[in-house]
Amino acid sequence: xxxxxxxxxxxxxxxxxxxLETGLAGEWPAGSGYFTVEEIPLYPFSGDGxxxxxxxxxxxxxxxxxxxxxxxxxGVGGAAVGYAGMKDRDAVTLQAFTITxxxxxxxxxAFTEAGAKVISATRHRNKLRLGHLAGNRFLxxxxxGDIESASKALEELTxxxxxxxxxPQRFGARGDNxxxxxxxxxxxxxxxxxxxxxxxxxxxxxQSLLFNEVLARRIEAGDFRRVISGDLLKKHDSGGIxxxxxxxxxxxxxxxxxxxxxxxxxxxxxxSPEGAIAEAERGVLDDFGLAEELxxxxxxxxxxxxxxxxxxxxxxxxxxxxxxxxxxxGVYATSLVREIAKSGVFRV
Length: 348
Known about the structure:
This protein has 348 residues and is of the alpha+beta class. 28% of the residues lie in helices and 23% in strands.
């Protein structure tokens, strides 16, 4: 199936190139017992402030579903509930929430009634917002697999970095979110019929589709770990972005994981690369038959094409191989698992 087709479902009807050439083994089964995610906070809750702040464990429910259930139980709007990450339904998840203007004990009861386990409850001065965390610690259990090849793959990904693809969750259960995002931006759908949350979801899916294609082409060209003149590089420590003008200076910085190349999240405030990199990004838009002006109302940004992998290890468990690793916010665990398991990005 052609990747350059808005009617094709990403990951479902076509795959993206892998980084590693190691053999694939094992399958990632469905079920929360095979997947655990633990948020790593930027800093502890302050203990005072206008927001109830809770650490909870949820199982078999999405972050959004839990947040809406809690808001409904407390009689507050959905915007009153803050969280730092959107976590999968099919997992055991430990994550934090804030609720504006609510007593923490009342909030804890609402979470418990919604089916979550409250680990702690206190106060905080700020509302949690998406991305407001240090990272996520993952545990993935494969059925079958090979401990030697899994360990080797994790070592390589730690050394090289992980292709920072947007995973299948971004594109919806049917894989059509990007197409719907295009239809919305092109005026084929009445804007009043699409709520704000759905609007943001489908537009970000279209932006993500274009980002994934830029990344895929870079891997196919053998340039995943190579600085190219005109690259927009991002500093991992500060988040600063700059144009690479001296490749011989910036390449060692990339090799040491001080910086990484970025790809486009198209929008009016997105910084543009130069030279061959700018041409390559325009080429992706052209191949999809899209104009950058289509995203004129969107903010836009740059996103790292590769992500660091930390604390990675493989061990044996009763049914096969267990993987543990830590990724920065916004990086999909599926992007790592597909480099190891033959089941790819989907659970079986």
